[in-house]
Structures are given as structure tokens and as C-alpha cells.
């Protein structure tokens, strides 16, 4: 909804009010005209022979004891051979059956036929229409002056008529018609053809003091002449009804009201109180380069006793349109009711009911409103005769939709209320209860949200700038969802900010935080304050698979993209999945690449794949040719600690960690320390391999379990490869090499590279090309560079 649209609807209401007001003014004028056609007499050519001549002639028509009309003449000449008289200076005064009129018909001479009672006035006739003063019974001021000719008046029936042109003048205007008929019996005056009336604007009715005329109808015009035309006009005085038959047209400046019939009901003082335009009524206007048209089955206007328009109603299939160079507007409804300001031709409020639709198209954009009821309130504009909309509210659930070339926004609520600025520009739209917002931008998936409340702000161009939603906010776009207590969408940046326990999720993850901001176009996301994300392990593209069940990540803040799945967790970042735990200053996740990277004070905790312990500690074993290990010498003892059933857990410290899910491999760099019940590893870098745990041959180099097996039992550490100045410790035994490989399945360390060396508690040293020692059974396998030559040592004491 734009402020221009709201102003246009206001103008439609005002134009309709003005047009109906024109009917009042025009038809009221005609009321005076109708009384004019009273009854006329016309002179005829007098024969040469005169039978009788009298100095005065008078005839009075009585109804019971009341005079209905009187015919008077200064002289009456009766001819011998003809049954008629010639009356001069003729006056016909009509009082009416109720004595409430004092209409006078005056002409120079008329022909009078006593037998038929016909009075025919062939020359010019002047008619004064005026009421009687109720208090004194004396004539009141003239209300209407009429001139015509060839008037006939019947003494017995009290009917007068002429087919000639009729012209009339009143303080409110003037007019003309062809032919008039008047019946003193039925008190019906009819202008027969070509009725034309022009009302003088109120500014022209000012008295000599410069004040506006006090006539009650002067408020109906506002400085621009009002003209009315019709095929005929009828005044039914007893019924107090005036009818302008169509095609009836009333105009004021560029405004026009047309209908097949315009009727006006009069009060007891014969002032308009109810006006009806029927038969395809329409209001048209061309102002400021725009053409406007309003139609309905019926227009009605209701006037106060003081004469100003109180209320206007357009009923039945109401339709309005406005066309200009900048765009078009259109509205439809079952009924439009307009309440006017007291004593002014200005709209106070407008109520629209029944299937209300308002559409606007401008600059390639369209806007529409649909509801069952709408209330619009108006206030004073910058100029005395100008208006602006103060507020508008829907009285039933409504839908507001805006469309541009690449975007559609639809708002729904049980009630909308608008707020307008000092200049009448729409500034804010408030939605109450069951609010729904739907946006479609380009080819992207539709964005939908719901809430209890909505506040939309609008810019100078009439487009919405921000959408604020509050109370149980629900947002969705494709498989992306969000909940919060408050949400704010900014049009220019396309950002949605969520506050109040927000939660965002998609098919692979769920994140909660104190606040979340999402760019709806790019998918960029930021979150702060107690950020917690969950990555669902049941998906193939989770990007994190370090253990059993979902992976959880907490941090102080999050930044990244919901579209690509590349996100950063910063500030006390922590990941836990099953028994696996990862702490760091920052954790970075690439969902599509199935990759994870942790940096800054990294601590990784991995459970070791289970095995059957046989013993523990360093020992010395012999080797037969071929390198096969021998059992420990008699007298050697097993390590009691190794018989414990508690699981083995490795804790690894390093500056950085990178994990590739498709390789089930974690690389730690920058100086690594790894400790467990099996011992301690120190190296420059370390690769930890994760597998399905209890059953597989994870010790084989390069082995990588399938995603299905990993997700079924969770991943555990199966192998460690440490490189660069490796130190292996177990109790008081120490081994060194350039590389150490630990396999969880058989609990053995293989040292190689450089000069692998093992020093036990007795400072006995063992070296070789590679050294393999078994944690479970205290044996060492020595692979010498001398080929088949082997060296065997026995552990003396444990």
C-alpha cells in the first residue's frame, strides 16, 4: 500500500461526495423551478365587437373553505360573437391546498374562455416562486423567477402548461428547459425536455459585507459552478420529491455525476435531506492529468437539517479506477460509506465493505489490498480545502501484496492499521494477530514467516523499508527454518535479524543463539551469545563425523553461509559428538567439502577402538629369522593396569587440527602432544584415523570406513601416525624416532625413521631400522638393518 494510493482513495471519496452534493444543489434549484410552472393564461386576438368590458376581473378556486388559487386582471373585455374574454395585466396567485405557497404568474394579457375555463397567455409570462411566511402568512422572499411564453392554465383543473422554452433564475443559479406542466391538484411540476441548470458557486453568493450567503445550499458548492442536465425534471410537492430523469448529468469543473435518474427527498421546509442516483450512476473526473471513474448500482447522499452533506453511500458492485501517466489504480467493493465533516464539503471518514479489493500499478510495480471491510479517516491538509489521510484500518482479515519485476511480497493479518506522516505520506503499517509474510525474490525459494504482530515502515518512494515481526516468529525458506520472539527484515540489505532465543535450522543442522542475522539473498549468517549448533549424523552431508550421534558445537559467535555450509565458530569453541570432544579458539566447518578445521589451543579427545588387552608395559622379545615375534621369556609378568576394562581415551593438544570426513582423518600440526592410558606421543605433526571401532582392520594403512558403518556405531580412533622428532613414552620407558605409527587393534607402536631407539627403566637401549613394541604383552620386535640378523633382549623387572 502506498501513500499515493491512500490519497487517491481519499480523492475518490471526496469526488463522490462533491458529485452527490452537486445533485443536491442542482435539484434543489429545480425544486424552485417546478413551482414556477404553475398555471398560465394567454391573450388571444380580440374581435372588433365587444359585448362587455369590466374594470376588474377576479376568480378564486376554493377547496372547501380554502383558496387554492386566484386569477385577477385589471380589465376584462367580453366579445359578442365569441365565448371568451380578453384579460389584461393578469395575475394568477397559487396558494396550494395547504396554503403553503404564494406563487405568482404575471403577463400583459390572456384569453379567457368561461365555459371551458381555459386561460391562454400567448405572450411573455413571468412567474415568481415563493413560499408563504408560516408566522404571518405573508409572502416570503422570492425563491425563483421564471420566464416563458404561450402558457395555458385551466381554471377548473388548476393545471398549467407550455411547450415553449422556460428560463429561470434564483439566488443559487439559473437554468432552462423546453416545456413545463403544473398541476395545482397533485402539486406536481414537470419540466418536459432539455433541462439545464447552472448553480452559482458559494463564493459568488457573498453578501455586500463579504460574508458567505447563509442559504443552506451554499455549502454544497465550493467556488466552481455546478451544472446539471437531464431529459426532464419532476417536482412532486406533496411527496416532497424531486426527480431529474436521465440521462441526468451533473458537473462541477472536471467532475461529473451521471445516472438514469437522480432523485431528491425534501424535508417539511422543502430543503433537500436525501439524494439518490440510480440507473448505472457514475462519477467521473479529470484532474491533475489523471482520469477517474467510480460506478455503483446506487449513490445516496444524506443531508443535515442545516443543509450540509452528512453521509454518502455507494452501494452494489462499487467500482473505481484512476488512470494517469505514472500508473493506474482500481478498487471494487459491495458498499462505500462516506461520513462528511459538519458544515464542510470535506470527508471525515470512509467505510468500505464487502469483497474489498484495491489495486495499483505504477513504474512496473503493482500493489493490492484485499479484505472484507476497511475504515479510512481523513484530516485537514496544508490548505483549507485540502485533505489528507490520517489513518486506515481493516475491519476484517486482509492481504496486502506488492509485486515488482523480480520480487513479490505478501502480507496477511487479521487486522492492519496504517500510520501517516504530517504530509499524508504512509509511514507505517501495523499488523495484528495471525500475521503472515511471504516473499519471492527472483528464482529463489519463497520466504515465509508468521508472527503475532507486524510493523512495516515505508520510504518516500512508497516502498516498504523494514518489516518488524514480534511474538512467536516462525520463518521458513526451502528446508531452512527459524524461530524467535522478534524478527526484523531490512529491504535494502535483505537482512533478517532474529532476537529472543532464536533457533535456525536446515536439513543438516540446527543453531541456537542470543541473536542471529541472516542475509536472505546470499545466505550469509552471523550469530552471537551462547551459540550452539547441532549437525545431524544421519545425513550424508553433515560435514562433521567424529563420533556417534549428532555433533554439537558451541562458541561465543558464529559467522558463515547457510547456503554453502561454510561457517566459523569463534570464542571458546567446543565440539562434542559421542565420546569425541574438540576444544579450540575457533572451529571452521565446510559442510559440502566434509571438512573441519580447528585453530588456537586445540584439544582433541578421541576414544580408542576397543581391543582385548593381554598385558602392558615395555618388554624385550626375541625374533626368529623372518621377523616373527616370540613370546615373552619365562618369568616376565603382565601389566595389571592393562587388564582394566575402562575404554582408552586419547587427549591430543596442538595449535591446529584439520579433519577430512571422507578420509576419516584428522591432521594436527604445530607441535603435538597425545596422551592416553597407552602412553604419550610428542611430535611436530600427527594424523589420527577414525574408524567404526570394535571390528574392522583399521590398522591397515589408508583404510577408510564407509559413511554407513561410521554412522551406525560411531567413529573411534583406530590408528595414529606421528611425524617429526617423535617421542613415545610409557611409564618410565621412552622411545624416539622420526615417525611413529600406533594401531589400536593390536595396541602396538612402530617407530621408524632416523635411528629408532627405546630406553627402558634400567637405561637399556634398543635400536634398529624399525622398532615395534606391543603394549599388551610387553614385547618388542626389532627389525635390524643387518637383514636376518636379530637382537633379543629380555626384560628383567617390571
Describe this structure in a few short sentences.
With 798 residues, this protein is mainly β. Helices cover 5% and strands 58% of the residues.
What's the total count of β strands?
Answer: 49
What structural category arises from helix and sheet content? mainly beta
Shape: rod-shaped
Rg calc: 52 Å
Count of helical regions: 2
Query: How would a textbook summarize the main sheet?
Result: 49 strands, antiparallel
Helix content: under 10%
Whole-number mean pLDDT: 78
Distance between the termini: 88 Å
Write a structural description.
With 798 residues, the protein is mainly β. The chain contains 2 helices and 49 strands. The protein has a 49-stranded antiparallel sheet that branches. A hairpin with a 2-residue loop joins strand 16 and strand 17 (290-295). The longest helix is centred in the first third of the chain and has 34 residues, at 3-36. It is rod-shaped and about 175 Å long. Mean pLDDT is 78; it is low at 1-50, 202-222, 612-644, 695-712 and 787-798.
SSE arrangement:
Layout lengths: L2 H34 L13 E5 L2 E7 L2 E14 L5 E10 L8 E11 L4 E12 L14 E11 L4 E12 L2 E11 L4 E12 L26 E5 L1 E5 L4 E12 L2 E12 L5 E7 L3 E6 L2 E6 L2 E6 L5 E16 L2 E14 L6 E16 L2 E16 L6 E8 L3 E6 L3 E7 L1 E6 L5 E16 L5 E12 L5 E14 L2 E11 L4 E5 L3 E3 L3 E4 L2 E5 L4 E12 L15 E11 L4 E12 L2 E11 L4 E13 L41 E12 L4 E12 L2 E13 L15 H7 L2 E15 L2 E11 L4 E5 L4 E3 L5 E3 L2 E5 L4 E5 L15
Antiparallel strand pairs: 1-3, 2-3, 3-4, 4-5, 5-6, 6-7, 7-8, 8-9, 9-10, 10-11, 10-12, 11-13, 12-13, 13-14, 14-15, 14-16, 15-18, 16-17, 17-19, 18-19, 19-20, 20-21, 21-22, 22-23, 22-24, 23-26, 24-25, 25-27, 26-27, 27-28, 28-29, 29-30, 30-31, 30-32, 31-34, 32-33, 33-35, 34-35, 35-36, 36-37, ...
